[in-house]
Design brief:
Helices cover 74% and strands 0% of the residues.
């Protein structure tokens, strides 16, 4: 809910506290956390939460947008790195590591085209565009196989994360994500073509 005017300093602080509490609550417990509980964790009254976010859906979307925007900033920073291949794999490793602990955010990002507000769609589009450039640069230097595109990588990573959560392999928590990263390297496609 935006009036177009900048928030006063205390209102801005309250909004940030609400977003921080909601981000932690949604990541740990899912979207079923009541708004009143988020208000309690943020140290504000329920009315303050409702003034900033009239529904749980608007609060959840604000958390998703904030997360997407942070990932986009991180991807843009990776673009500035001197080694495109290392930067791509480091960014992808970070994304997969976070997605496993932030299940609802990962699910929302995966579905960010369907039923989401235009702000969320724009944030998701910005991340997809930046990620595509990051991938293309890594492919250009031969660090990533050239027969995949950004949509392929997203689908493969999400599938691996879903399978990883279902397996609940506590002895090897990053095994499937690691296998996915290895499959994106050029020698994986060369091995497949020889079979």
């Amino acid at each position: 809910m935006s009036t177009g005017r900048p928030l006063r300093a205390d209102a801005r602080r309250n909004r940030e506290r609400i977003l921080r509490a909601a981000r932690l609550a949604f990541a740990a417990e899912g979207v079923s956390v009541p708004l009143d509980e988020i208000a309690r964790r943020a140290g504000v009254g329920p009315g303050t939460v409702h003034r900033h976010f009239p529904t749980k859906e608007t609060l959840f979307e604000a958390v998703v947008v904030e997360h997407l925007e942070q990932l986009t900033k991180d991807a843009q920073a990776a673009l500035q790195a001197g080694r495109p291949g290392s930067a791509f794999f480091a960014f992808l490793t970070r994304m997969t590591g976070e997605a496993d602990t932030k299940q609802d955010l990962a699910d929302a990002i995966a579905k960010s085209g369907a039923g989401m507000e235009s702000t969320t769609q724009r944030a998701a589009a910005g991340l997809r565009e930046t990620f595509a450039v990051l991938l293309e640069r890594a492919q250009h230097v031969g660090a990533v196989r050239t027969d995949v595109d950004a949509e392929d990588v997203q689908a493969i990573v999400l599938a691996a994360l879903t399978a990883q959560r279902q397996r609940a392999d506590t002895d090897r928590p990053d095994r499937l994500a690691g296998l996915v990263l290895d499959c994106l390297r050029p020698n994986a496609s060369a091995t497949e073509s020889r079979r």
